[in-house]
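Here is one chain, start to finish.
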Amino acid sequence: MRRFYLLFLLLVPMVFVKAQGEQYELVENINYYDTLVESQENYQKERCKLDVYYPKDMTKVPVVVWFHGGGLEGGEKHIPEGLKEKGVLVVTVNYRLHPKVKHPVYIEDAAAAVAWTFKNIDKYNGDKNKIFVTGHSAGGYLASMVGMDKNYLSKYNIDANQIAGLIPFSGHTITHFTIRKERGIPGTQAVIDKYAPLYHVRKDAPPMLLITGNREMEMLGRYEETAYFYRMMKVVGHLDVELMELDGYGHNMVYPAIPLLLNFVKEKSQE
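Its structure:
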């Protein structure tokens, strides 16, 4: 585990830079489901969309799938400013929200979006062998669940181990508090069941970079549960997992974490 201090973070270079004359294009509101659930048809059509932001003149571009935060109850797809014009392709995803749906629909939507990416990203100059899944808070939780519980992607005949890397930003590793609320469990009562990334620790999972804010500034013990996940991944023999704690930042730590994500993507894309 590494702790990063504010001064260091300000000096971290953005590792992907815009090439001279390189042009980026944004394609918005692509439906990522082939079929609709009749009872959810209108809401599914509204929410289950993604945007693709890609460099037009590059090929085999590393792909970053970004899930927004919002406690599984709010939020909208967006591209974090630090990911624009950095030589990566960004897929940013909306998913259905509580209370209009309940678990595991959020995770199923996230998996459907990742599956769409595997099957279609070559049309946008992306490399399906370099798909990295990430997000902040609830989005980090979804990234971890899609990558750790192989059942969600197997529905689409995709092995979760094909993901090039998982980079959850301050995401639950225990069962998400909104899912606990749906089940009548207090937010202060920790649960580790099949809706917890911790439940699915395994040696052969994709490479992982876990990033949280400072342990004294984070929300709801987020650092500590992430540190336990990190430790258990080590215990089961996973050889490529790292935990970074960002001193000077609490839960809203997306900006300083983006350079770390980009460095990780560059490193793994070159292996």
